[in-house]
Amino acid sequence: MVAEIKSYTVLGVDAVEVTVQVDAGRGLPSVAIVGLPDSAVKESRERVRSALINSGFPFPARKVVINLAPADLKKEGTIYDLPISIGILFSQNIVSGRKLKDYLIAGELGLNGEVRRVKGALACAILAREKGYKGVILPVNNAEEASLISGIEIVPVKTLTETVAFLNGDLTIEPFKREGDFRESKFDIDMADVSGQFHAKRAVEIAAAGGHNLLFFGPPGSGKTMIARRIPTILPLMTEQEIIETTKVYSAAGLLSEGVIDKRPFRSPHHLVSDVAMVGGGSSLKPGEVSLAHNGVLFLDEFPEFKRSVIEALRQPLEDGMVTVSRISGTVSFPARFMFVAAMNPCPCGFYGFEDDVHQCSCSPVQVKRYLSKVSGPILDRIDIHVSLPAVKPDELSKMECGETSASIRERIEKAHAVQRERFKGLKISFNSHMGSTEIRKFCSLSSDAKAILEKAVSTFRLSARGYNRILKLARTIADLEGEEIIKSHHVAEAVSFREVIKIN
C-alpha cells in the first residue's frame, strides 16, 4: 500500500503543497527518492534510517521508493524527514492513517529521533488554512511562528515517537496557542540621543509619517548614521498583519532563530553586497536585503560605494514595493515595501562644500564629479527627501539641546498613519508615498498659494513628472502631521526644501 503524507515546499516566501508518497515493495533492500530532490533531501535517507532505529521502530528490508509530488517542482531542505518517516511506518502498519489527511506535516530529524526546526513554517500554516486542513504538525521550535495564523491547529512535536503516538491516538497534544501581544517597543537607543540637527530630525519625522525615502548628504561625523539607526524607534508598532508578513519572509529565508519578528527590521548591508544578496535570487531563490527590510528600514551607508548594478537594482522595489526575480529554476516575487534611507559624503575625502577652519576638501573637481555620478539621476529622483547635514563642532555639542524623545515623535507619526489608513480604506495602499497619479489627483487638494509655489519649484528645479508627484505626496504628509485637509503654501514650501539637488560648481 502506498502511503501519502501531505507536506510543503517553499517557493519564494510562499508554501506550495507537496505530497510525499512512500511505497515499500518487493525487491533488494534500498531507498530511492525521486521528484527533483536536492542534496539535503537525498541525505534524508540516512537521517530517517537512524532516527527510526534509534526510536525503536523497524526499518523495512524492502525496496523503498519515495516520490515527492509534483515531480517537476524542485524540493529543498530537510522539511521531508518527518513525513518520509511517517510514510515508512504507515507502510508497515505501525502508524494509523486516520489523521494523515487532516494535517500538513514537516520536520527535520536528528539521528536520535529528535524533531528539529525547519524553514517556512509560517507559510506552511497559511497554506494549511487556505487548503482547508485541520492543522499542521511541526517541530515545537516552529510552533510560535505558525501560531500567528488562526483557525487551524498547531500541533508541536518534539520527537518522532511523540508524533507517532499522536497520529495513532495514543497521545493527546494540546494545540499551541500564543499568549499575549508579541508587539514590543523597547529600544536601547533614542532620538533624544542626537544633539542638534533639528532639520534632519524633522525630515526623518516626515519620512516616517508618510513612508517616504530619505537621503542624508554631509561630511563624516555629522550624525547621518546615528540618526538613521534611530528611525525604527519612532516608527509605530507593527500591526499583526505586518508581523505575519515580515516573519514569513524571515522564516522562508531560514533566518528565524526563534519566535516572531515583532520589531521593524533595520537592515544595513555592507557596500560590498552582491546584486543577488541585495534583491534576492540565487539557485534557491531566497529573499534578499530589500525583502528582509520589508515593513522596516533599509539603510545604505556610504551610498556611492555600492556597486552601480546594486544601486540600479533598487529601482523596481523602490517604485513597486516588490521585486520579481527570474532564474532558470523559476520566477518568484518577493515583498519589498520598506523605508529606504541612504547616507553619502559629498566627495571621496568627505568635505566638499562643507569646509571649515579645520577641514578642507582635497579632491579635484574631476574626483568629486566621478564620485557623485556613481548615484544616477533616476535613483535620486526616487528619493523623496534630500537633507544636507553640516558637521557639528565638538565644543558646540554640550551647548545643544537633545530635542524630543522617540516616544513623543512616534505619537505624532501614529496620528498621521491613522489619517492615512482612513483615507486609503479599501485601497491597496497604506501610506502617502504609495499613491499613484489617480490617488494624487483625488487626495492632494492645493490652495491657490500652494499651486503658485509648486509651479515655481517645477520651473526652478526642472522637476520631472515623478519629482512633481513626489513633492505633492511629501506635502500631503506634512499637512497630515498638522491635521490639515487642504495642502497649504507652507506645506509645499517645506516639501520643496527637501528636494535639494546635488550639483558640481
Write up this protein:
Pfam families: ChlI, Mg_chelatase, Mg_chelatase_C. InterPro entries: AAA+_ATPase, CHLI-like, Mg_chelat-rel, Mg_chelat-rel_C, Mg_chelatse_chII-like_cat_dom, P-loop_NTPase, Ribosomal_Su5_D2-typ_SF, Ribsml_uS5_D2-typ_fold_subgr. The chain is an alpha/beta fold and 505 residues long. It folds into 3 domains: 3-167, Ribosomal Protein S5, domain 2; 191-407, 3-Layer(aba) Sandwich (Rossmann fold), CATH 3.40.50; 435-505, Orthogonal Bundle (Helicase, Ruva Protein, domain 3). 36% of the residues lie in helices and 17% in strands. The protein has 21 helices and 18 strands. It has helices at 39-42, 44-54, 81-91, 121-131, 143-146, 160-167, 198-210, 224-229, 240-252, 275-279, 289-292, 308-312, 315-320, 365-372, 377-381, 394-397, 406-423, 437-443, 448-461, 465-481, 489-497, and strands at 3-11, 14-25, 30-34, 63-69, 103-105, 108-109, 115-116, 135-139, 153-157, 214-217, 266-267, 280-281, 286-287, 297-300, 322-327, 330-335, 339-344, 385-388. The strands form 6 sheets. Strands 11-14-17-10-18 form a 5-stranded parallel sheet. Strands 1-2-4-3 form a 4-stranded mixed sheet. The chain has a 3-stranded parallel sheet with strand order 5-8-9, sandwiched between helices. Helix 5 (143-146) links the parallel strand 8 and strand 9. Helix 2 packs across helix 3 (81-91), helix 7 (198-210) crosses helix 20 and helix 20 packs across helix 21. 45% of the residues are buried. The model has no long low-confidence stretch (mean pLDDT 91).
